[in-house]
Amino acid sequence: MAASERGDFSEIPMLDVSGLYGGDEAAIREIASTLRGYLENIGFLYVVGHSIPRADVEAVREASKRFFALPEEQKLALKIDKNFRGYLPFAGSTIVTSSVATVSKPNQSESIFFMHEVEADDPRALAGKPLQGPNQWPDEAVLPGFHATIQRYVDAMSTLARKMVGAISISLGLPADSLDRHFDDPTTFLRLLHYPTQPKEEGLFGSAPHTDYGFITLLAQDDVGGLEVKNKAGDWVPAPPVPDSFVMNVGDILARWSNDQFVSTPHRVINRSGRERYSQPFFFDPSMEATIEALPVCVPQGTAPKYGPVEYGDYLMERIDKNYHYRKKLAAEAGDA
């Protein structure tokens, strides 16, 4: 797969990251160099050679299927809260902030969100800081082992994500730990998604065309397919399931941080399979209090950065508040209080 210029691609490339788990500096730099080309020209790649067992990925998928098979009233008992944790019912979001499409119909999916764990008595939760509170977990008697399965996976994905953060730093000619301080208390999301079989209807998507908000996304797909990525020519390039891989993509905050050196590429999901689809994207983002401004190495000499500094939490909340229906309802209720 070759990308002769930015956005000119017809398939999604694959990167073996097994060298990131060893101490061979030359191997790490080679991986980082290849990664840089993919992030600059495509913004998407398959990550293989990671250390996460297939059994752990499949265990999360099975846990997801068990949750979505519960009666609606049991799922709604965990309905998503002000801290963005819990169950989002079917058609609960519309991507109105999309820069690549005018979206008027809700996404054809249901999902449950698990973020970084914050105990109820944590000072951040007690102070009412945005997105700081405990996760909502299904009853252990109803879904035994669910919590442990999800937590094990989140821990493993966080380790992989940190290795990719280091590789991104190296790719820019920086020390591997250059960005670490921005991830002292990372903002993480594991979203379990269920896409029912989708009717053929104009403007209807499992997930409408969009770019991701954050730093990087690491997605585990099932075998159904439906993810597509938009290239420079405006064609939608399939990103079919590849065994033992994660689809990694650049989010908007990484694009902004790199002064648009790395590209946050539009993508969508259309479930044409006639089967139910399950996916599990993991989003690894900076600390809510982190100030994000263009890295000097990404700003050509004699030019100004394209974007001013922004606190990640402020940036994130603006997008969440606009795209999720329940946030509008919460805002209206707060206005009436």
UniProtKB/TrEMBL annotation:
| Keyword tags | Ethylene biosynthesis, Iron, Metal-binding, Oxidoreductase
Question: Taking every annotated instance into account, which residue ranges of this chain make up the domain Fe2OG dioxygenase?
Answer: 186-286
Q: Does the entry feature the keyword Ribosomal protein, yes or no?
A: no
Which major enzyme category is it? oxidoreductase
* InterPro entries to which the protein is assigned, alphabetical: DIOX_N, IPNS-like_FE2OG_OXY, IPNS-like_sf, Iron_ascorbate_oxido_reductase, Oxoglu/Fe-dep_dioxygenase_dom
Q: In which pathway does it act?
A: Alkene biosynthesis; ethylene biosynthesis via 2-oxoglutarate
* EC id: 1.13.12.19, 1.14.20.7
Q: What reaction gets catalysed by this protein?
A: L-arginine + 2-oxoglutarate + O2 = guanidine + L-glutamate 5-semialdehyde + succinate + CO2; 2-oxoglutarate + O2 + 2 H(+) = ethene + 3 CO2 + H2O
**Name of protein:** 2-oxoglutarate-dependent ethylene/succinate-forming enzyme
BP GO annotations: ethylene biosynthetic process
Q: Name one GO molecular function term.
A: 2-oxoglutarate oxygenase/decarboxylase (ethylene-forming) activity
Pfam families hit by this protein = 2OG-FeII_Oxy (PF03171), DIOX_N (PF14226)
| CC cofactor | Fe(2+)
Q: Which family does it belong to?
A: Belongs to the iron/ascorbate-dependent oxidoreductase family.
